[in-house]
């Protein structure tokens, strides 16, 4: 009786579980991706103390040349013409959510009159909580004191 040699299997890389791994990576990246709503580049002023700012706060940005941009915290920021436009924007946000927090992000070289006009507009819109963004490390346990 003649014994035949069995077939020699070629070298293969098992790819059956590769789709599962790719699917898990996609889910991970979708869940951990954070959208930055305000991409306005400003050089922030220095401070000694900084509090953690809420992630979904509305943002008002003032660039070095005085251009203003606003965002409700969910959508990408859009340019506005003046502090009066900031007032109407903030009034709409406060009407929908009276406890909405606002962040004012101003370039360190911007003339203070623009910052003052913007703060006055936010006061007139009855904004309850306003954060002034600065360039400093966050201090642990300093929130709200």
Give a summary of the structure in a few sentences.
The protein has helices at 18-32, 83-96, 112-124, and strands at 58-62, 68-71, 78-80, 101-106, 129-132. With 145 residues, it is of the alpha/beta class.
Layout of helices and strands:
Blueprint: H1 18-32, E1 58-62, E2 68-71, E3 78-80, H2 83-96, E4 101-106, H3 112-124, E5 129-132
Parallel strand pairs: 1-4, 4-5
Antiparallel strand pairs: 1-2, 2-3
Helix pairs in contact: 2-3
Overview of the structural elements:
- The chain is of the alpha/beta class and 145 residues long.
- It has a single domain, classed as Nucleotidyltransferase, domain 5 (2-Layer Sandwich), CATH 3.30.420.
- 29% of the residues lie in helices and 15% in strands.
- It has a five-stranded mixed sheet with strand order 3-2-1-4-5, with helices on one face.
- Helix 2 (83-96) runs parallel beside helix 3.
- It is elongated, with a radius of gyration of 26 Å.
- The protein starts with 17 loop residues before the first helix and ends in a 13-residue tail after the last strand.
């Amino acid at each position: 009786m003649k014994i035949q040699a069995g077939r020699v299997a070629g070298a293969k890389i098992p790819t059956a579980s590769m789709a599962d791994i790719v699917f898990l990576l996609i889910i991970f990246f979708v869940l951990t991706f954070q959208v930055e709503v305000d991409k306005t580049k400003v050089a922030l002023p220095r401070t000694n103390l900084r509090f953690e700012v809420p992630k979904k706060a509305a943002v008002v940005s003032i660039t070095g040349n005085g251009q203003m941009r606003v965002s409700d915290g969910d959508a990408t920021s859009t340019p506005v013409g003046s502090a009066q436009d900031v007032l109407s924007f903030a009034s709409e946000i406060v009407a929908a959510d009276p406890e909405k927090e606002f962040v004012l992000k101003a370039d360190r070289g911007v003339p203070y009159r623009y910052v003052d006009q913007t703060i006055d507009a936010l006061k007139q819109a009855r904004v309850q909580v306003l954060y002034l963004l600065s360039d400093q490390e966050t201090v642990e346990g300093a929130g709200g004191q």
